[in-house]
């Protein structure tokens, strides 16, 4: 566990994968959001826990790209927007385990998100 935020640390030796990290989050996200996040992180679940920041950013970026490309602004996208926000937040919480890399990660994330929509499907 991270001492600062209650989430599972990427340096916790008992957690070895992105999926294990997600399953150990405390507090756990509300059920509907947990199910959506689990589905979004499923392609990354087998990756080593050290890749949590990138996995969360990748999953959030893919979903945000799809939302922006669709032009959808209806209430039906609220859960997806919350999922994007949660994934980016989790990415930076996990990245806090390596503070020396935080500036570079933030700059990369900003550049990637600013390039949306449509940059992933090109």
Backbone CA Rg: 14 Å
Order of helices and strands: HHHHH
Strand content: under 5%
Number of domains: 1
Q: Can you give the mean pLDDT?
A: 87
Question: What fraction, in percent, of the residue positions are helical?
Answer: 40-55%
**Major sheet: size, sense and barrel closure?**
none
N-to-C CA distance: 39 Å
**Quick one: how many beta strands?**
0
Query: What best-fitting shape do the alpha-carbon axes yield?
Result: globular
Class by alpha and beta content? mainly alpha
Low-confidence stretches: 1-6
Number of helices: 5
Provide tags for this entry.
122 residues; 0% strand; disordered N terminus; 55% helix
Topology at a glance:
Layout: H1 18-23, H2 31-41, H3 52-70, H4 78-95, H5 102-114
Structure report:
This protein has 122 residues and is mostly helical. It has helices at residues 18-23, 31-41, 52-70, 78-95, 102-114. The chain starts with 17 loop residues before the first helix and ends in an 8-residue tail after the last helix. It has one domain. 25% of the residues are buried. The chain is globular, with a radius of gyration of 14 Å. Residues 1-6 have low confidence and may be disordered.
């Amino acid at each position: 566990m991270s001492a600062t935020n209650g989430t599972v640390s990427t340096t916790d030796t008992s957690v070895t994968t992105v999926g294990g990290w997600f399953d150990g989050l405390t507090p756990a996200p509300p059920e509907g959001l947990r199910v959506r996040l689990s589905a979004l992180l499923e392609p990354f679940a087998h990756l080593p826990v050290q890749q949590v920041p990138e996995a969360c950013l990748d999953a959030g970026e893919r979903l945000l790209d799809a939302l922006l490309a669709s032009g959808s602004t209806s209430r039906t996208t609220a859960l997806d927007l919350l999922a994007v926000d949660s994934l980016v937040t989790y990415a930076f919480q996990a990245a806090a385990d390596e503070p020396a890399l935080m500036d570079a990660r933030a700059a990369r994330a900003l550049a990637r998100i600013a390039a949306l929509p449509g940059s992933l499907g090109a």
